[in-house]
Amino acid sequence: AQRVTQPEKLLSVFKGAPVELKCNYSYSGSPELFWYVQYSRQRLQLLLRHISRESIKGFTADLNKGETSFHLKKPFAQEEDSAMYYCALSGRGTDKLIFGTGTRLQVFP
Amino acid sequence: KAGVTQTPRYLIKTRGQQVTLSCSPISGHRSVSWYQQTPGQGLQFLFEYFSETQRNKGNFPGRFSGRQFSNSRSEMNVSTLELGDSALYLCASSPPEGTGGLETQYFGPGTRLLVL
Fold first, then answer.
1. Who among B50, B58, B107 is closest to A44 (CB)?
2. Residue B34's closest chain A neighbor by CA?
3. Were both Cys, which of A29, A33, A38, B52 would link to A70 (CB 3.0–4.6 Å)?
4. How many CB atoms lie within 10 A of CB B73?
5. Using one digit for the tens of pLDDT, what is the confidence trace for B3-16?
6. How far apart are CA B52 and CA A71, in angstroms?
7. Is B45 on the interface with A (CB under 8 A)?
8. Which tens digits make up the pLDDT trace of B27-55?
9. How confident is the model at residue B102 (pLDDT cuts 50, 70, 90)?
10. B85 near B21, Cβ under 8 Å?
Protein backbone atom coordinates (compact mmCIF):
# COMPACT_ATOMS: atom_id res chain seq x y z
CA ALA A 1 0.00 0.00 0.00
CA GLN A 2 1.16 3.52 -0.72
CA ARG A 3 1.08 5.59 2.41
CA VAL A 4 2.74 8.57 4.07
CA THR A 5 2.70 8.81 7.85
CA GLN A 6 3.36 11.95 9.85
CA PRO A 7 2.97 10.88 13.47
CA GLU A 8 2.84 14.36 15.01
CA LYS A 9 -0.15 16.61 14.47
CA LEU A 10 1.47 19.47 16.35
CA LEU A 11 5.04 20.33 17.15
CA SER A 12 5.78 23.31 19.37
CA VAL A 13 9.27 24.69 19.91
CA PHE A 14 10.91 27.91 20.99
CA LYS A 15 12.81 30.13 18.61
CA GLY A 16 16.37 28.90 18.15
CA ALA A 17 15.57 25.31 19.07
CA PRO A 18 16.21 22.45 16.63
CA VAL A 19 13.24 21.07 14.74
CA GLU A 20 12.58 17.63 13.32
CA LEU A 21 9.31 16.82 11.60
CA LYS A 22 8.95 13.10 11.10
CA CYS A 23 7.79 11.39 7.93
CA ASN A 24 7.66 7.70 7.15
CA TYR A 25 6.44 6.18 3.93
CA SER A 26 5.32 2.92 2.43
CA TYR A 27 5.74 2.42 -1.30
CA SER A 28 6.66 -0.47 -3.56
CA GLY A 29 9.29 0.90 -5.87
CA SER A 30 11.37 4.05 -5.84
CA PRO A 31 9.25 7.04 -4.93
CA GLU A 32 10.08 10.68 -5.05
CA LEU A 33 9.67 12.37 -1.69
CA PHE A 34 8.66 15.95 -1.07
CA TRP A 35 7.97 18.38 1.73
CA TYR A 36 5.25 20.96 1.13
CA VAL A 37 4.51 23.91 3.39
CA GLN A 38 1.41 26.01 3.86
CA TYR A 39 1.81 29.30 5.68
CA SER A 40 -1.24 31.00 7.12
CA ARG A 41 -3.56 32.24 4.35
CA GLN A 42 -1.11 31.19 1.63
CA ARG A 43 -1.08 28.49 -0.99
CA LEU A 44 0.45 25.12 -0.55
CA GLN A 45 4.00 25.33 -1.89
CA LEU A 46 6.89 23.00 -2.40
CA LEU A 47 9.61 23.32 0.23
CA LEU A 48 12.03 20.70 -1.01
CA ARG A 49 12.31 17.38 -2.80
CA HIS A 50 14.73 14.61 -2.03
CA ILE A 51 16.36 14.38 -5.45
CA SER A 52 17.53 17.98 -5.36
CA ARG A 53 19.33 17.53 -2.03
CA GLU A 54 19.12 21.26 -1.42
CA SER A 55 18.62 23.27 1.74
CA ILE A 56 15.69 25.65 1.54
CA LYS A 57 15.13 28.25 4.28
CA GLY A 58 17.58 26.27 6.41
CA PHE A 59 15.55 23.06 6.14
CA THR A 60 17.04 19.78 4.98
CA ALA A 61 15.62 16.31 4.55
CA ASP A 62 17.48 13.09 3.92
CA LEU A 63 15.86 10.07 2.38
CA ASN A 64 16.59 6.95 4.42
CA LYS A 65 15.49 4.01 2.30
CA GLY A 66 16.33 1.49 5.01
CA GLU A 67 14.02 3.14 7.51
CA THR A 68 11.66 4.43 4.77
CA SER A 69 11.85 7.87 6.32
CA PHE A 70 12.21 11.41 5.05
CA HIS A 71 12.39 13.56 8.17
CA LEU A 72 12.56 17.35 7.83
CA LYS A 73 15.13 19.11 9.97
CA LYS A 74 16.24 22.61 10.83
CA PRO A 75 18.94 23.35 13.41
CA PHE A 76 17.51 26.67 14.62
CA ALA A 77 13.79 27.35 14.27
CA GLN A 78 12.52 30.84 13.46
CA GLU A 79 9.10 32.29 14.23
CA GLU A 80 8.40 32.62 10.51
CA ASP A 81 8.72 28.83 10.19
CA SER A 82 5.35 28.46 11.90
CA ALA A 83 3.16 26.72 9.31
CA MET A 84 1.58 23.45 8.30
CA TYR A 85 4.05 20.96 6.83
CA TYR A 86 3.06 18.07 4.60
CA CYS A 87 5.23 15.17 3.55
CA ALA A 88 4.27 13.66 0.19
CA LEU A 89 5.41 11.02 -2.24
CA SER A 90 5.02 10.47 -5.93
CA GLY A 91 5.76 7.56 -8.22
CA ARG A 92 7.63 7.68 -11.48
CA GLY A 93 5.81 8.98 -14.52
CA THR A 94 3.01 10.63 -12.61
CA ASP A 95 2.35 13.87 -10.80
CA LYS A 96 -0.04 12.19 -8.39
CA LEU A 97 0.96 13.08 -4.85
CA ILE A 98 0.13 11.03 -1.78
CA PHE A 99 0.16 13.32 1.23
CA GLY A 100 0.62 12.70 4.91
CA THR A 101 -1.86 14.23 7.34
CA GLY A 102 0.44 17.13 8.06
CA THR A 103 2.24 18.51 11.10
CA ARG A 104 1.58 21.98 12.42
CA LEU A 105 4.80 23.62 13.56
CA GLN A 106 4.48 26.39 16.11
CA VAL A 107 7.60 28.39 16.91
CA PHE A 108 7.27 30.55 19.99
CA PRO A 109 9.40 33.68 20.59
CA LYS B 1 4.04 34.28 -15.02
CA ALA B 2 0.60 34.23 -13.48
CA GLY B 3 0.04 31.47 -10.97
CA VAL B 4 -2.56 28.73 -11.05
CA THR B 5 -6.00 30.27 -10.83
CA GLN B 6 -9.18 28.63 -9.65
CA THR B 7 -12.75 29.81 -9.96
CA PRO B 8 -14.92 30.31 -8.12
CA ARG B 9 -13.07 30.82 -4.84
CA TYR B 10 -16.14 30.11 -2.69
CA LEU B 11 -19.30 28.22 -3.40
CA ILE B 12 -22.37 27.26 -1.41
CA LYS B 13 -24.61 24.50 -2.71
CA THR B 14 -27.34 22.29 -1.33
CA ARG B 15 -27.47 18.51 -1.23
CA GLY B 16 -28.37 16.92 -4.52
CA GLN B 17 -27.11 19.78 -6.65
CA GLN B 18 -24.13 19.56 -8.94
CA VAL B 19 -21.11 21.84 -9.16
CA THR B 20 -18.36 22.62 -11.67
CA LEU B 21 -15.01 23.99 -10.58
CA SER B 22 -12.47 25.48 -12.94
CA CYS B 23 -8.69 25.55 -12.93
CA SER B 24 -6.36 27.48 -15.21
CA PRO B 25 -2.79 26.20 -15.03
CA ILE B 26 0.34 28.23 -15.43
CA SER B 27 1.04 29.02 -19.07
CA GLY B 28 3.01 26.19 -20.66
CA HIS B 29 1.98 23.61 -18.06
CA ARG B 30 0.18 20.61 -19.50
CA SER B 31 -0.38 18.52 -16.39
CA VAL B 32 -3.20 19.36 -14.00
CA SER B 33 -4.04 17.50 -10.80
CA TRP B 34 -6.96 17.92 -8.42
CA TYR B 35 -7.01 17.32 -4.67
CA GLN B 36 -9.65 17.44 -1.97
CA GLN B 37 -8.62 18.85 1.39
CA THR B 38 -10.73 18.26 4.49
CA PRO B 39 -9.90 18.50 8.21
CA GLY B 40 -10.69 14.82 8.68
CA GLN B 41 -9.06 13.22 5.63
CA GLY B 42 -6.37 15.75 4.82
CA LEU B 43 -5.21 16.09 1.22
CA GLN B 44 -6.52 13.40 -1.06
CA PHE B 45 -5.76 12.96 -4.74
CA LEU B 46 -8.76 13.13 -7.06
CA PHE B 47 -7.39 12.90 -10.59
CA GLU B 48 -4.60 13.95 -12.90
CA TYR B 49 -4.85 15.11 -16.49
CA PHE B 50 -2.17 15.42 -19.10
CA SER B 51 -2.79 16.62 -22.65
CA GLU B 52 -6.56 16.18 -22.27
CA THR B 53 -6.24 12.59 -21.03
CA GLN B 54 -6.88 11.35 -17.53
CA ARG B 55 -3.58 9.84 -16.48
CA ASN B 56 -4.47 8.83 -12.95
CA LYS B 57 -7.50 8.64 -10.71
CA GLY B 58 -7.94 8.54 -6.96
CA ASN B 59 -10.42 6.55 -4.90
CA PHE B 60 -13.45 8.75 -5.22
CA PRO B 61 -16.96 7.78 -6.35
CA GLY B 62 -18.08 8.28 -9.91
CA ARG B 63 -19.92 11.43 -8.88
CA PHE B 64 -16.55 13.12 -9.16
CA SER B 65 -15.42 13.66 -12.71
CA GLY B 66 -13.09 15.93 -14.58
CA ARG B 67 -11.82 16.93 -17.93
CA GLN B 68 -9.06 18.93 -19.53
CA PHE B 69 -9.32 21.15 -22.56
CA SER B 70 -6.85 21.68 -25.39
CA ASN B 71 -5.57 24.86 -23.71
CA SER B 72 -4.78 22.76 -20.59
CA ARG B 73 -7.53 24.38 -18.53
CA SER B 74 -9.33 21.82 -16.44
CA GLU B 75 -12.73 21.45 -14.84
CA MET B 76 -13.98 19.08 -12.22
CA ASN B 77 -17.61 18.26 -11.68
CA VAL B 78 -19.35 16.81 -8.67
CA SER B 79 -22.89 15.59 -9.18
CA THR B 80 -25.52 14.83 -6.56
CA LEU B 81 -23.67 16.70 -3.86
CA GLU B 82 -23.49 15.26 -0.35
CA LEU B 83 -22.73 17.04 2.91
CA GLY B 84 -19.40 15.22 3.05
CA ASP B 85 -18.29 16.86 -0.19
CA SER B 86 -17.76 20.12 1.70
CA ALA B 87 -14.05 20.73 1.32
CA LEU B 88 -11.31 22.84 -0.17
CA TYR B 89 -10.63 21.66 -3.71
CA LEU B 90 -7.09 22.33 -4.86
CA CYS B 91 -5.74 22.29 -8.35
CA ALA B 92 -2.04 21.97 -9.19
CA SER B 93 -0.17 22.25 -12.45
CA SER B 94 3.23 20.98 -13.47
CA PRO B 95 5.65 22.05 -16.16
CA PRO B 96 6.81 19.64 -18.86
CA GLU B 97 9.11 16.97 -17.48
CA GLY B 98 12.73 17.98 -17.24
CA THR B 99 12.09 21.69 -17.02
CA GLY B 100 10.66 21.96 -13.55
CA GLY B 101 13.80 22.26 -11.50
CA LEU B 102 13.04 22.35 -7.83
CA GLU B 103 9.45 23.42 -8.12
CA THR B 104 7.55 20.80 -10.01
CA GLN B 105 4.02 21.38 -8.77
CA TYR B 106 2.31 24.69 -8.34
CA PHE B 107 -0.90 24.85 -6.37
CA GLY B 108 -3.82 27.18 -6.82
CA PRO B 109 -5.58 28.94 -3.94
CA GLY B 110 -8.41 26.43 -3.98
CA THR B 111 -12.19 26.56 -4.22
CA ARG B 112 -13.96 26.24 -0.90
CA LEU B 113 -17.20 24.33 -1.36
CA LEU B 114 -19.84 24.24 1.33
CA VAL B 115 -22.73 21.82 0.89
CA LEU B 116 -25.80 22.55 3.02
1. B107
2. A96
3. A33
4. 16
5. 999 999 999 999 99
6. 36
7. yes
8. 989 899 999 999 888 999 999 999 999 98
9. very low
10. no
